Amino acid sequence: VSERKRAGIICVGTELTEGIIQDTHVRFMASELTAMRLQVVRAVQIPDSAPIFRAELARAIADCELVIIAGGLGPTSDDLTREIASEEAGMPLEFHEEVWKGIQERFRGRTLSETNRKQAMSPRGFGLIPNAYGTAPGFHGMIGKTLLAVLPGPPAELRPMFLRYVPSLAQGLTGTSADEVSWGTAFMLAESNLEEAFQGCRKGEVSWGTRVEDDRIVFNLRGAVADRDGLLADLEILLGARVRRGDVKPAKLLSEALLARGMMMASAESCTGGLLGKWMTDLPGSSRVYWGGVIAYSNQSKQRLLGIEGKILAEHGAVSRETSISMAEGLREIYGADVGVSVSGVAGPEGGTPDKPVGTVWIAVARRGEETAARVFRFPGSREMIRRRSAVAALLFTEACLQGLEFPQFEV
Amino acid sequence: VSERKRAGIICVGTELTEGIIQDTHVRFMASELTAMRLQVVRAVQIPDSAPIFRAELARAIADCELVIIAGGLGPTSDDLTREIASEEAGMPLEFHEEVWKGIQERFRGRTLSETNRKQAMSPRGFGLIPNAYGTAPGFHGMIGKTLLAVLPGPPAELRPMFLRYVPSLAQGLTGTSADEVSWGTAFMLAESNLEEAFQGCRKGEVSWGTRVEDDRIVFNLRGAVADRDGLLADLEILLGARVRRGDVKPAKLLSEALLARGMMMASAESCTGGLLGKWMTDLPGSSRVYWGGVIAYSNQSKQRLLGIEGKILAEHGAVSRETSISMAEGLREIYGADVGVSVSGVAGPEGGTPDKPVGTVWIAVARRGEETAARVFRFPGSREMIRRRSAVAALLFTEACLQGLEFPQFEV
Predict the structure, then answer these.
(1) Three-state SS for B304?
(2) pLDDT digits (tens, 9 = 90+) for A357-405
(3) What share of chain B in percent tops pLDDT 70?
(4) CB contact under 8 A, B298 and A275
């Protein structure tokens, strides 16, 4: 393996160094750059100050092969990125008539001040990075032996621009092109589980990188298309519904499966306390697939909202196959939903027993004309993590039931 | 106003520069340091690499009056902070017997390896910063004219240690001591609203700083105790339930108000889709105050779960005073809760009308033997922001009803 090339990230904005906003660029870009096999040697947040910015950029150019600047491309005098990049490159700023037309188009009907003209400028000899989601394009060019890429600060603009353009711009540093990459998502696995699974697959010449998020691992595979497809097919056999092609999220997967079948889902949540419903309704238009549900947090609410018999609760407990099945079936029977999903578990930190330790969670899925499916999970982690993992599991297990996918058990 | 002193933040860990974890230290510390009237000139994330760390620390010492290092205090060979700080200070590491005893105490019953001994070391002449939440203490000392403070990486350790010790350590730079500070929290206000409110109060010699979080603004006041109290009292008159003393969160406030009265609350959520229930159940032991609830997302679920008459929905619509009141009272009547809270609104992006634009949200609170209270809000922002603001408003409005606090309307 050859030495990894060095990358630096500079995020510009006094709102970062005064703690007014939370930076999310570093984590996003650092994981993408790492997946591209670059070494991020420094990520830095600096205020809108010309001397600080100038020193920081000079230093990054001196010791990195790739430098990414995020932010400072707005129209106000605080926004210094164009001027500082132009100085450092030793190239004057050039006005792009076609970019200016695009900006005017975008602002049609509103007054554009002369200061907005600056957003149509970039250092001479630099290429433009189109911005489909905002006003200011980015730009890229070489300063000495360093590739500089400049992107606007809003995440909704930076992220798609980064994903679309930076991998090909950096191809010379990373040795792969964007069309040699496949993406996938793994759910409810530790990174070590996924690593093990990769080891058990046909790998050909494929290499891989991962980005670990709260509830999922997004991974990319680099290599010949046939090798990548073979590896993905093997992963699907090993991991069933826990691995998917593309960069996908659980609530979206389930919503699409419901929509395709014209089904409405209802939820009965105990330990997740409403999180499953919250996620199902994050997406606009969710009323086409999500009917509503109940938060049956106390035993009394399980009886009153879902008609669970006191006998079942007394005999088997709130966290049991029997109770979770009754909860899911109650939704179908009492409220008439097409699909009823229940979650009942011990989120902790109190309430665990030797039989049912903290992290024990039952999930059941009731459907019209089908036997109700129920599964027990044991999740590690804090109360918050157990609740999040329970909600992810409920979404994915339900979707797997609808699609007829295997959902293998894993110790994580 | 004298020139602000310069502060630098160094966060150490390859998990940051590979994008495996999201940094949250910078935002937290930057806002605190800004509130302490320091200028954060640079916050940087670096990997666990000795040459990179060494260069970064030397640079920060050279151009800042205060440098804070977060992380790298663990027991493994990756953890370099002690060694690098000792080198830069030109002082050997010293072993502290009493710290080592504390670590052994903490690990009682488990094996401690020799490498753990390193966690009991700090550069000679440096002071220790006690860690009540983990193994490794932090330390602080002068390197030339720069104050260096070193804190462990886990946020649950760093945050309380920072708040308790850094303001007094930095007193020489900021000119105020920690016991001259009062904290407060403002809810559902723009920073400009709060600024305006401050301007309308008796200020004496009090100065203030803010930290803006997702759903609240935490602020601090510095000055003589009588002046701070006068200002807080004025703010409470102006802002009612929207301002509180201390650094407080809405779900906690409501839970405490319910607990003090021995009351159980139930929730009926439409646009928030379960978020209110999720927040109420975030706290362990929430089953003493939260009964459960319904997610009445569709009109059909409002009828089936809460017994809302079709006539009310048809005449007034799902987002209306009448429907929200029926929802809250349905909880009380059908399920017997002490307090019933309902939220119904247009979260968007679709579904707005000239009468009820996106962001219109009704909240109602029904109590035994009291008239049901109902209020309409208009929230700006994205679907996600409107949903979060609705849930915050429901928690606070309910608590204000229980406590008999004013809840003034504000345009934000």
Answers:
(1) helix
(2) 999 999 999 999 899 999 999 998 889 989 999 999 999 999 999 999 8
(3) 97
(4) no
Closest-CA distance, B340 to chain A, in angstroms, reads 13
Show the tokens assigned to B346.
């247009």
What pLDDT digit, counting tens, does each position of B136-165 carry?
Answer: 899 999 999 999 999 999 998 999 999 999
Alpha helices in A214-309 (DSSP H): 225-239, 250-261, 275-280, 299-306
- Nearest 5°: phi and psi at B194? -65, -40
Residues of A in contact with B294 (CB under 8 A): 292-295, 305
- What single letter denotes the amino acid at residue A116? N
- Torsion on CA atoms B120, B123, B126, B131, rounded to nearest 10: -30
Provide the mean pLDDT of chain A: 91
Task: For residue range B173-191, list pLDDT tens digits in order.
Answer: 877 665 677 889 999 888 7
pTM for the model stands at 0.75
**Is the CB of A20 less than 8 angstroms away from the CB of B31?**
yes
**What single letter denotes the amino acid at residue A161?**
M
CB-based contact B19 A41, cutoff 8 Å? no
Residues A178, A180, A184, A190, CA torsion sign: negative
**Secondary structure E strands in B248-354:** 265-269, 290-295, 339-345
Instruction: For residue B185, give the DSSP letter.
Output: E
Contacts of B272 in chain A (CB under 8 A): 278
DSSP per-residue letters across A331-347: HHHHH--SEEEEEEE--
Give me the residue from B34, B49, B292 closest to A296, CB to CB. Answer: B292
A contact test, residue of B17, B288, B331 with most A CBs within 10 A: B17
Min CA distance, A42 vs chain B (Å)? 5
Whether this model's ipTM surpasses 0.90 comes out as no
Residue B275 has its nearest CB partner, among A274, A294, A383, at A274
Burial code of B269-299, b = ≥16 C-beta within 10 A, e = fewer? bbbbbbbbbbbbbbbeebbebbbbbbbbbbb
Give tens-digit pLDDT for A61-96: 999 999 999 999 988 888 999 999 999 999 999 999
Separation of alpha carbons B41 and B9, rounded Å: 9
* Residues of B whose CB is below 8 A from A26: 16, 19, 23, 45
Please say if the pLDDT value at position B412 is more than 50: no
Whole-number pLDDT of residue B193: 83
Among residues A189, A6, A9, the alpha carbon closest in space to that of B23 is found at A9
B46 close to B17: Cβ distance less than 8 angstroms: yes
